[in-house]
Specification:
alpha+beta; 8-stranded antiparallel beta barrel
Length: 190
């Protein structure tokens, strides 16, 4: 009986030590002022959808980091953003754009406290853009066509701040690129 109690104590102690060593983190985010937003604005201004009303959403995404040290995390960021351009006369969608982005990423924590942290991050990868025009847009502009494009994309987060418990934290980031000029999210560490 003493051996069983001792084994349980050792197991619980080992689980407690492992719980303190949080190497993985997964996050969900929403950004504004992203590169895809700017790209969508430019393409709509130059296409048959010029003058239409556009609705843009995103980027909405996920991120994962594995911390190789308390300061440095390596991982990836994936996001989705989109835009619909509605014809002002017919009130039908002329153009639909979808932006999918995947970027390897590095995160540097330069301040780590129990309930607060500050960091910077750099991501670079590929963006895949799908552009679909409806029949009215194609009839109005002979050069309008459905396309799929890919291009280099990045995110440079100059300043990120996270706050909350040791495992669950909210975060806000200021940077430039596909996550946006301002990005908000929630992160879980395990």
């Amino acid at each position: 009986m003493k051996k069983i109690i001792l084994a349980l104590c050792v197991a619980l102690f080992g689980m407690n030590l492992q719980a303190q060593d949080l190497k993985h983190e997964v996050g969900l985010f929403y950004g504004t002022g992203s590169a895809s937003d700017i790209l969508s604005f430019v393409t709509n201004a130059l296409s048959a959808a010029a003058g239409d009303q556009s609705s843009f959403w995103g980027p909405i995404g996920v991120e994962y980091y594995y911390h190789i040290s308390p300061m440095v995390g390596l991982g990836a960021v994936a996001s989705y953003a989109g835009c619909n351009a509605e014809d002002g006369k017919t009130h039908k969608n002329d153009l639909t754009e979808s932006f999918f982005t995947v970027m390897p990423s590095v995160k540097v924590n330069w301040m780590r406290k129990k309930y607060f942290g500050m960091y910077s991050a750099l991501s670079a990868g590929l963006m895949f853009c799908s552009i679909s025009c409806n029949d009215n847009a194609k009839a109005n502009d002979p050069s309008a066509k459905d396309e799929t494009l890919s291009t280099f994309m990045f995110q440079a987060t100059a300043l990120g701040a996270e706050f909350g418990s040791n495992r669950i934290r909210g975060f806000v980031e200021a940077g430039v690129g596909e996550k946006g000029l301002l990005c908000l999210g929630l992160r879980y560490k395990f």
